[in-house]
Amino acid sequence: MNTAQLIADNLARVHERIADAAHSVGRSPDEVQLVAVSKYVGVAETAALLAAGCPILGESRPQQLWDKAAEPTLAGAQWHLIGHLQRNKVRRTVAVADLIHSVDSLRLLETINECAAELNRPTRVLLEVNCSGDAAKHGLSAEELRRILPEFPRLEHVTVCGLMTMAALEGGETVAATNFASLRELRDAVQPECPPGVTLSELSMGMSHDFEAAIREGATLVRVGSLLF
Ligand SMILES: *Cc1c(COP(=O)(O)O)cnc(C)c1O
What we know:
This protein is 39% helix and 17% strand.
């Protein structure tokens, strides 16, 4: 079997598993978008994903995102940045990204707002929350999230659409499910405290080894890489 066929088959299998997980908790599979994480592969394999019907592609390194977004053979993809973003890389990322999942400070949010204004490109973002308590992980604490909520209305060129988290590396699906439930509960708790017009509808959580648990806990975006290749 050639690589493109293998990728298409893997993609179909992931879509099936997404649908099964959604149905198991009475959700519609349409509520869950697959972000195919293409960071492991080159342009040809990424093009195979796109051709197989997966328009949303995720990269964790800004430079790789810029390079692939400039590839003519990948035209039509929607690029999501899922990894850490440094402020000196914001401008070029805002220029091409459809959604930035990994905003973990007010300063970064302000820089994104400035670049979005200059480029006249309104930008959608998620705020990354550290739900696992793992000190090595990026992400805001619940208190930090609450502290920056009132700032959103003055950042007119950014739309905060929801929250993102990474589950703890240790502990398997059970611990991951607890982390995902924490993100949903945090969202439900802070939503009423949000300024008017701010709706945290998106929850980006779940990767290859735990996306089904994430869907059961309310994920609207799952970021799946290894399973596809
Ligand atoms: C690499 C990566 C993924 C995909 O992980 P897999 O286990 O390969 O599915 C998801 N989210 C982030 C933030 C990543 O860096």
